[in-house]
Amino acid sequence: DNMASRHIVSGFDFLWRKSGFEVSFSLIPHTSNDTYASALMVGFLNTLLVSAIGIVLATVLGLMIGLMRLSRNWLAARVATAYIEVMRNVPLLLQLFIWYRLVLMPLPQARDAITFGGGALSNKGLTLPAPQFGEGAGFAWGAGLAVAAVLSFLVLRGAGRRQEATGRRPPAGWMSAALLVGLPILFFVAIGGPVTFDYPVKGSFGFSGGMTLVPEFIALLLALTVYTAAFIAEAVRAGISAVAKGQGEAAAALGLNPNLAMRLVVLPQALRVIIPPLTSQYLNLTKNSSLAVAIGYPDLVSTGGTTLGQTGQAIEVVMIWMTVYLSLSLLTSAFMNWFNARTRLVGR
Questions:
Q1: Which has fewest Cβ within 10 Å: 196, 279, 284, 344?
Q2: What is the spatial distance between Cα 21 and Cα 93, in angstroms, rounded to a whole number?
Q3: Among residues 124, 67, 100, 95, which one has the least CA distance to residue 270?
Q4: In degrees rounded to 5, what are phi and psi of residue 17?
Q5: Phi, psi dihedrals of residue 32, rounded to the nearest 5°
Q6: pTM for this entry
Q7: What's the confidence (pLDDT) of residue 194?
Q8: How many Å apart are CA 254 and CA 233, to the nearest integer?
Q9: Residue 120, strand partner residues
């Protein structure tokens, strides 16, 4: 009744109308002449980008901070403790404003940008050379990655069988990683390496050419990373503390140095405790990326909000938001549950 009184027609036909607005940061081409569906896709891809990179960086940083807190080095342990306590107790929105307003916005203007190599850093963002791939590059990367995935599977499978037969496991992880990185590069080089770089050129009002990571993206990525890493560090600390102390002592008695004992004995057992809260933090990071609207980063919520304001299709836009975030959460949970099942102890 409310929609009818405002002459708003329900349905998703509005998605194919011209949007009339541009997006400041986009992974795919988009102009004001494109549809609302295109604008929402831009926002969705921007959400995926910052969430995926944030998950990787937060995991690495959280693991490092968690290990530092358990370190016997007094200074390292205290620094890690201070980091965790401060970052966990300062609201993410406030951290987002600190990174954006107090760190990135005071940077020099584009004409006085900090230059390094072929890139530049200013209050307009981080400008870098953009690779331009020639014909056949995509096929070469795809073919190389596919072959590397098959060979990596065979290597890991063979390593498992050898471990069961002899008790010794070859360095299959490193071999697999080398294949996944090296083979696509080898295929790419084999077809002549058709790639050139578009270097940014400084003009009167900024840079032209290259690619620019806008400050909104950088601020959001930094805030999500340092905030979530504090929670991941606590999950790592709890998981390692849950492993019996005798496990590390037994590894030392067998002649393993502390680094090998941690990597081969303690961490594999700690994963059973770490993964469930780690899954929750991955879900939180993805959903927290919606705070991007506070600083103008064009994520799904931001582009959807603009679409809602112009079309009045509130129910449909909110349904799109709910569907996307629910799908991302369920897919992340499914993958982490599969990974958790792979790492649990199996009785014989």
A1: 344
A2: 26
A3: 67
A4: -90, 160
A5: -65, -15
A6: 0.83
A7: 67
A8: 28
A9: 115, 127
Place of tokens 């299709």: 313
Of 348, 342, 338, 174, the C-alpha closest to 263 is: 174
Q: How many whole angstroms separate alpha carbon 285 and alpha carbon 278? A: 11
pLDDT at site 205: 67
Backbone phi and psi for residue 346, each to the nearest 5 degrees, phi listed first? -115, 125
- Give the C-alpha separation, 259 to 206, whole Å: 48
Element (H, E) at 156: helix 137-166
Do residues 186 and 147 lie in contact, with contact meaning Cβ atoms separated by under 8 Å? Answer: no
Separation of alpha carbons 308 and 33, rounded Å: 17
303/325 Cα distance (integer angstroms): 15
Structure-token match 């994963």, residue found:
271
Predicted pLDDT of residue 197: 73
Distance CA 106, CA 222 (A): 16
Which residues are 28's β-sheet partners? none
Residue 72: exposure state from Cβ atoms within 10 A (0-12, 13-18, ≥19): exposed
- State the residue for tokens 């011209």: 18
pLDDT means per 10 residues, the chain with 348 residues, are 78 88 87 91 94 95 92 91 94 94 88 79 83 74 83 82 73 79 79 72 72 90 96 92 85 80 83 90 94 91 92 90 95 90 62
